[in-house]
Amino acid sequence: MQNQDFTTTVVVNNTPAEVFKAVQNPRAWWSEDIKGATENLHDLFVYQFEDIHRCKVQLTEVVPDKKVVWHVLDNAFNFTKDKTEWINTNVIFEIRTKGDQTELVFTHAGLTPADECYEACYQGWSHYIGRSLRDYIVTGKGLPNKGGQAQTDKERDLKGELK
């Protein structure tokens, strides 16, 4: 049986150092409302999107220009029966040189299709990594949510904005 953890890959012309620096600034590509530190080993931060999703994350591995691992300490969803699905999962950013380009492999270890939140999380991570983080790396401007502003159709649906 192959690994079913959510994984996506982004390839850019930027250096590993530029990719690493971008990963360390999730306010620029995930949510402007993140509270706490997001750069160094053992830093703690909280992500919250209205009353829909809240998680507390600790950086458990930071290898400059190569790897960042976030460990989810606490989590709450308002749209699943099991509000705690992300607890004890790891969000992994692996940075590799691929020829003259840089490859960012993103894996949410523990997030699988068996999870009730998978559809929403698949859509969210696909947007925030494949589009927002990629854009932030390449252009310096990401597409983070801010002040509860939804960025994906699933976020809009959960807020009741899609009819």
What does this structure look like?
This protein has three helices and seven strands. The protein is an alpha+beta fold and 163 residues long. The chain has one domain (7-158): 2-Layer Sandwich (Alpha-D-Glucose-1,6-Bisphosphate, Chain A, domain 4). It has a seven-stranded antiparallel sheet. Strand 4 and strand 5 (67-77) form a beta hairpin. It is globular. The mean pLDDT is 93.
Brief account:
The chain has 163 residues and is of the alpha+beta class. Helices cover 22% and strands 34% of the residues.
Write the layout of secondary structure elements.
Layout (H helix, E strand, L loop, with lengths): L5 E7 L3 H8 L11 E2 L7 E6 L3 E11 L3 E11 L12 E9 L2 E9 L8 H22 L13 H6 L5
Antiparallel strand pairs: 1-7, 2-3, 3-4, 4-5, 5-6, 6-7
Query: What gross morphology would you assign?
Result: globular
Uncertain stretches of 5 or more adjacent residues: none
CATH-defined superfamily: START domain
Number of helices: 3
CATH class: Alpha Beta
> Which second-level CATH architecture applies?
2-Layer Sandwich
Distance between the termini: 39 Å
Strand order in the largest sheet = 1-7-6-5-4-3-2
| Helix/strand class | alpha+beta
Q: Please report which band the strand proportion falls in: under 5%, 5-15%, 15-25%, 25-35%, 35-45% or over 45%.
A: 25-35%
Mean pLDDT score, rounded? 93
The radius of gyration computed from the alpha-carbon positions, rounded to a whole number of angstroms, is: 15 Å
What is the H/E order? EHEEEEEEHH
* Residues in helix, %: 10-25%
Please report the total strand number as a whole number. 7
Total of domains: 1
Q: According to CATH, what is the topology? A: Alpha-D-Glucose-1,6-Bisphosphate, Chain A, domain 4
Main beta sheet strand tally, sense and closure: 7 strands, antiparallel
